[in-house]
Amino acid sequence: MASSQKSLKSALNNFNKDKVEIKKDDMTAATIVMEELKKDIFRYLKGLGVPMRPFELMGSVYEGLKVIFANEFDLLMPLDLSDCEWDLENFNEVATKAGYWRLKLGRNKHAAEVPVSKNEWCKSLSKYLDNGYLSAVKIRRAFQSFLQKWSDQYKKSAAPKYEINVRQGGPAVTLNVVYGSDRRELCIDFVPAIDLRPIGMPTNALVVAKPPPKVLRGADVESLWLQSYCREEKERMNKIDQADNGCRKKCVKILKTIRLHNSQMGVLSSYVFKSILLKVCKDRKAEHWGSDSLADRFIDLLKELHSCLKTKNLPSQFNSKVNILASLEDPAIRNIETYLAKVIHKESYVNDLLTCSGTCKYCKGPSAKK
Ligand SMILES: [Zn+2]
User: Fold this and answer.
1) Reduced to 3 states, what is the DSSP secondary structure of residue 212?
2) How far is CA 48 from its chain centroid?
3) pLDDT digits (tens, 9 = 90+) for 125-150
4) 20 CA to middle of ligand 1, Å?
5) Residue 143 φ/ψ, nearest 5 degrees
6) Where are the transmembrane segments (predicted)?
7) What is the DSSP-derived secondary structure letter of residue 303?
8) What is the 3-state secondary structure (H, E, C) of 39-88?
9) DSSP secondary structure string, 148-174?
10) Considering 4, 82, 178, 207, which has the largest number of Cβ atoms within 10 A of its Cβ?
11) How many CB atoms lie under 10 A from the CB of residue 335?
12) What's the mean pLDDT in 361-369?
């Protein structure tokens, strides 16, 4: 091993130890709180007549990719709309490349039914439609108001254990929770989703009510649903390092953490790093991922990232029609591409990527020590 690789390897390991890893006890405490609230909210939504399938835990925590704090959970809330007929429609080319679709209601068996009160789930679905298309925005708002009502009720209960707030107006349905004597914080993102399989779609995927990126802002975007492969991703990520006790997830976690400390890298979503890893694993199957190769593989991922940015093309490993970089605007892509080209050329990984200027919100302020 060249000495520069050796020192990069130890810098990566130190960075991982100091900045990336979550304390096990913190994770356990946060999970207990989340599980308790999850059960309570599920029961509440069922009571309102919302056609819920069981919540599913998704995202970084359940893929072993969460970094720094045990404070964010993603809960998938799949709705069962299988008693209506739906057509999955393209919107335009930009939307297709970004993975967004529209769901058009065909026949609605419940057209005549009306909800008991305006605060309950409306079985006729007309309340959630825009020109015959299911509106992701309206569904999200409905859940926001259901959660608000649940939280109002929770606050009035005899002895509320936690301080709860529903974040208003954001793109997601988010619950902020303060718990424990040291007032720790956690947030749970509730993601409304629709399972396409039970409604007879020629795909086993799922669409989620995630707001479209800026490139898709404008008319009619309220009815756009993002096709999600979170179930497949969770399965892949959970197995990915098993056979060889590899450092694949470690690399992604380090990149995700760099992204939080480094404003240049902050332009990229965590999802980009995970997708780069999946691409490299597929393109170069024979590569050695043991802990000895940490520095080499880390550089490989950066180089692959750079070349994808250069061509603005990172195909989804689950659907080759989707380009994960399609949502990024060109100037942003150019900036980060130029930056990475410099880092790779100078081999200044430690100085530029693993060293924080100390001005980021993770390195200063009270939350940094939590
Ligand atoms: Zn920092």
Assistant:
1) coil
2) 27
3) 888 999 889 999 999 999 999 999 99
4) 11
5) -65, -35
6) none
7) H
8) HHHHHHHHHCCCCECCCEEECHHHHCCCCCCCCEEEEEEEECCCCEEEEE
9) HHHHHHHHHSSS--SEEEEEPSSSSEE
10) 207
11) 13
12) 60
CA of 370 to the centre of ligand 1 (A): 14
**Higher-scoring residue by pLDDT: 177, 121:** 177
Answer yes or no: are the C-beta atoms of 223 and 136 closer than 8 Å: yes
Residue type, 286: A
Mean pLDDT value across residues 39-64: 90
At residue 105, φ and ψ (nearest 5 deg) are -75, 125
Counting every residue written for the chain, the total comes to 370
Task: Give this prediction's pTM.
Answer: 0.86
Q: Which amino acid is at 292?
A: D
Q: Which of 358, 356, 290, 249 is nearest to 15 (CA)?
A: 356
Domain ranges of the chain: 2-364
Separation between Cα atoms, residue 34 and residue 91, nearest integer Å: 36
Q: Kindly report the CA angle at 368 between 366 and 370, in degrees rounded to 5?
A: 80
What CATH number belongs to 2-364?
3.30.460.90
- Tokens coding 295: 């520095």
Give 19 Cα–ligand 1 centroid separation in angstroms.
Answer: 9
Q: Can you tell me the distance from the alpha carbon of 44 to that of 55, in angstroms, rounded to the nearest whole number?
A: 13
